[in-house]
Amino acid sequence: MLLQAGLVIFGALMRALQPCFLASALLVSGLLSGAAQAAPSCPLAKTQSFKPVRQIHRSQPGFTEGLEWHDGAIWESTGDLFGESRINRIDPVTGHVTSLVNAGKDYFGEGLTFFGDRSYQMTWREHRVFVFDPLFQHEPELSNPREGWGLTHDGSELIASDGSDTLFFLSPHDFSVSREVKVTINGRPLPALNELEWVGGAIWANVFEDWNLVRIAPATGCVDTVVDLRPLLKRMTAPERRAVLAEPNFVPNGIAHDPTSGLFIVTGKYWPIVFFGRIE
Questions:
Q1: Per-residue pLDDT for 160 more than 70?
Q2: Most buried residue, 2, 19, 62, 66, by CB count within 10 Å?
């Protein structure tokens, strides 16, 4: 009798709680559905080609970590592997290299960008961000808690990579993070993001130890375009090609864009050549 009474009471209790369970299930279902809707749906990345229109031989090699087009010239930040950490100006016609800043091996130079009337150079593991005025005099430097890899800007914020699959949107005043974007290609994370360039509302990136350039949608992190740079090897002399392929570090790194001509400018670490071309 006691067992039967207990079962009756339990059944009544379950009937009373049933609306709560249903409401809870609907809430969880709604949250999962919302999360699925919020996740970006990325298209498959298409393939394009880099079409060189001209090239220059540089007068001095550099371990290229950052590349910019500014004030009618190519600007480069180099790391100290096989050389020195410098900020170079490269003449776009003659290839003559002039060093504006030479830090030797005091730090490992990385990404470089010009933003407003200031230029910014990151360091790799020293957590320092150098700020320069138009005459390349030092302004108060900033701090970066992550590794420094690539650097660009979208006109309102700096954008940096740290060798992971994440891009960081940052204040130019204190390097604080306003948002982060995870980068994916064909549904998979894309790590080792390196040198960056903002072109026409999208972010172009080199990938460490990879011969592909990728174009990233800044809102979603989706890679929508891949460009294979290996055909550039055919435009090098046999000795140049052997030198580039003999060292695993000498991969493509460095992408800039001249908005007046519409040309992209690409090179690699310790490459003797800088290429100008279009992506089609």
A1: yes
A2: 66
For residue 19, is pLDDT > 90?
Answer: no
Q: Would you say how long the chain is, in residues?
A: 280
Asked whether the whole model's pTM tops 0.90, one would answer: no
Q: What is the DSSP string of 209-263?
A: T-SEEEEE-TTT-BEEEEEE-GGGGGGS-HHHHHHHHH-TT--EEEEEEETTTTE
Return the CATH architecture of domain 52-279: 6 Propeller (2.120)
* Nearest-angstrom CA–CA distance, 224 and 185: 8
Write down the residue that tokens 């393939």 correspond to. 47
- Matching residue, tokens 């970066």: 144
Query: Is residue 49 a contact partner of residue 232, using CB atoms and an 8 Å limit?
Result: no
d(CA 280, CA 278): 6
Q: ∠ at Cα 169 (221, 118), nearest 5°?
A: 135
